[in-house]
Structures are given as C-alpha cells and as structure tokens.
Design goal:
mainly alpha
C-alpha cells in the first residue's frame, strides 16, 4: 500500500489564518506604519483597511494567474508593477469618493505599494498557489489587517475625542484624552492590543498543553 499523501490546508484554514492565527499586524507585525499613522479615527482606519484589502486581493489574483509565465529573475519587479497598478486605481477611487478621506490618508495610500504584507503574500503565497487559494488568502489577510486597524481606530477615536464615526458618545462633559489623538497614543494602544492578543495566545497554548498532559 502506498502511504497517504499529506493534505494541505483547507480553503477555510487558508481564509481564517489571516484573521487570527497569522494576523498580519497583531501576530506578524507587518504594515505597522499605516496602522499607527491613520488610526486617529474609525473612518480613516476603515478606509485604509478596505483600500489595502482591495489591492491585496486583486494583486494576489493576478499574480497567481500569471505566475507560470513570469521569469524568476524579474518576478519581484513584476509583482511591484502589479501592486502599483492597483494602488493607482485605489488612489483615484478614494479621491473621487471623498476628498476629506483622501487628504487624511495622505501619502499612505501611495505607500501601499511598499507594504511588506502585500509583497510578502505575493512572493510567499500567490506565486505558489492557485487563483482560488490566493483569493481566499488575500481576503483573509485583508480582513485581518482591517480588523487590526479598526481595533486601534475605535479606541483612539473614543478616548481621544469622545466620538465614533464622528458621532458624540459622552456629551459635552466628557474631557477627551488628547494623548490618544497624538502619535504616542497610537503606540500605547498598539502595545495594549499586542498584550491582549499575546495573553489570549498564551492561555490557548497553556490549555493545549494541559489537555496533552
């Protein structure tokens, strides 16, 4: 009898890993620059998350489609060109939809081109897998990235201005904590979320070790 061939990760695992187990921000610490810079408000955080997800999904699909035709010597240059094309589309789309959001995000829209998360997924996953799996990977990682942005943006906007999506939550007596609207506040909130995720992972690991014993 021939030994059974080990199965690769299922489609569900490919999608879900970017949400939690391999979250690009909370676990892999990728793309932290825009995470800290644009999360002053939920609106900015959500816009950057959706823009990055669009670029990630589209670039994954196209790179997976042409991976057999791209010479290894120029693959990185081709990947960057593909990513830059979709970033340009996003840049014009955001500017057409909302000039205020476009100004708030500033240069960080263009810097999606050099986001190590997107280029890393192109090199490590899309260039080695099918279009379907690359689509699931892009959606999972993009949603995970957006989730991290929303986590930071919600805390910083609520504590820094007493609002959420511009809606007043606490009334005129609330005194905003200005530090959370400052860059230092981004580091504080980010560190808090990293501690929270690390605590959950540690509890899960301890539970697994206890079950094994």
């Amino acid at each position: 009898m021939q030994p059974a061939t080990p199965k690769g990760p299922s489609d569900f695992d490919t999608f879900v890993k970017g949400l939690w187990k391999e979250n690009p921000v909370m676990v892999q610490l990728l793309g932290c620059c825009p995470v800290l810079a644009v999360t002053i408000s939920m609106r900015n955080a959500l816009a950057m998350g959706l823009a990055t997800t669009f670029v990630l999904v589209c670039s994954n699909i196209l790179i997976a489609s042409i991976r057999r035709f791209v010479p290894k010597q120029v693959r990185i240059a081709v990947y960057i060109l593909v990513i830059a094309t979709f970033v340009t589309i996003v840049d014009y789309a955001i500017k057409a939809i909302s000039v205020d959001v476009y100004k708030a995000l500033g240069a960080f829209i263009a810097l999606i081109v050099v986001n190590c998360m997107i280029l890393g997924r192109a090199e490590a996953f899309a260039s080695k897998n099918t279009v379907w799996k690359s689509l699931l990977d892009g959606i999972g990682m993009g949603v995970g990235f957006t989730f991290a942005l929303v986590c930071l943006g919600s805390v910083r906007e609520i504590l820094g201005s007493g609002r959420l999506f511009g809606i007043d939550l606490f009334g005129p007596r609330f005194e905003p904590w200005g530090i959370f609207a400052a860059p230092s506040g981004g580091f504080l909130v980010f560190g808090g979320w990293l501690l929270f995720f690390g605590w959950i992972q540690a509890r899960k690991q301890a539970r697994l070790q206890g079950d094994a014993k």
